[in-house]
Description:
Blueprint: E1 6-9, H1 13-24, E2 33-37, H2 43-48, E3 56-58, H3 66-70, E4 78-81, H4 88-98, E5 101-104, H5 120-134, E6 141-142, H6 151-166, H7 170-184, H8 188-195, E7 197-206, E8 209-210, E9 218-221, H9 225-233, E10 235-239, H10 246-253, E11 260-263, E12 269-275, E13 280-285, E14 288-295, H11 299-306, E15 309-310, E16 316-318, E17 321-327, H12 330-335, E18 343-346, E19 352-354, E20 356-365, E21 371-378, H13 387-405, E22 411-412, H14 419-426, E23 433-436
Parallel strand pairs: 1-2, 1-4, 2-3, 4-5, 6-22, 7-17, 9-18
Antiparallel strand pairs: 7-20, 8-19, 10-12, 11-12, 13-14, 14-17, 15-16, 20-21, 21-23
Helix pairs in contact: 1-13, 6-7, 7-8, 13-14
Amino acid sequence: MYSAKIMLFGFGGVAKSLLDIILEEKLFAIDNIFVSDKTRRAFHYFEKKGGRKENCFLFYMDSKCYKEMLDLLSEGDFLIYLAVGNDNLVLAKECAERGIHFLCTTDDTFKDVPFTEPFRYKTHFYQYKELMNKSKGGATSVLQFGSNPGLISVLTKKALMEIVDNDDSAFVSDNRGELKKLYEDGMYAKLAQKLQVTSFIETDLDTAVSDYKEDEETAYSTWNVWDFEGEMNDRSIQKLGCNASLSEHLKRIGVSADDIFSFSREDGTLVLDVSGKTVKTKGYAKTISFEGCVDAHEEVFSIHDYYSLRDEDGKLIYSPTVMFVYRPCEIALNSVYHEDNFRNRLITKDRMLSGGEIIGMCVEGNNFNPIFVGVERYYDENREDTPTVLLVAVSVYAAIRYMHDHPDQGVLFPEYLDVNEVVSHISKWLPITVNRID
């Protein structure tokens, strides 16, 4: 049992599920667990589980007061930020200075500060990368580590390992020893180059069915309704590999060159002047093919960067295409096409009837057979959480374990975590599924 304190900031569904896992695994003593939320009713579950009332903090964080909650923690403690509406870059910097282990599940900015940068993910990525380089040797923090973003980035490594160990193509069979040495040495970008990986296609298939009857003025989602609507309505963003054909990629996602808002061949960032919900392409979940929306997502930047190779002059010599393909559950997908949504409805466990969620990574390339590697969860009447919530909670749990076991690695993106450790931490709840794509 860890002796440090842990603060769960934003005590919603994911935090409740995470609390159950922490107590089940005896990770932290209940007296060393603190929770914070902007509504008092959120604390009932914590107190029912044995949490102390004095460890509950009614708090609304913004740019003026965010440091106050950090004052409750000391060097070596953990801040698990599960809320929305605050700048995770600022929080990560502050925790790095204080020696606090920090984890967030997404990227965000302060709601009370005007933010005019149209490409937040891209701008923040380079700022996070600068912080990562400056923080080496400090308290380990993990950025943007839920299921996606987060766990999905680790699955890129797992997919490459599966290709090397099990693919029966001529190239892999003839070079298996050399290829295996690359992943054993942690040289995953070089391995991707050797395999001639052309694309990492992240896929998310949500099949949840609820008892809600669709209302034409209501938005629905199995996770955060506000963020879901924003993501689906924002401009679609992908990262193109340095050798990828722009025209072939546009054909694949069904848009024309007239739809391009901006494109940088140097860093591969493709921004379309159309929303993610209107850009459609084929995705895979296990052996299921589906039509999904090509949304903007944080991890396309960090995955593309992790697998990019440059020469001594800094010139890009290899990078893969990376994009996120998402098929929400039917009622949620329909709702983003409503003319106006004046209400939000989160699909919680008590409103869910069946279905679940499959997330995974499809890897395509020239020297192997395409593969899907992922995890899945379905409706379980014996659990209090939904499949979506559990996927995130288990992923966060794995990252907490990693931070504790490797306390002085500084600020990390998900791609830098050890794949075998993360897989071992999630396997109890999320066994890995591997399928060849035909």
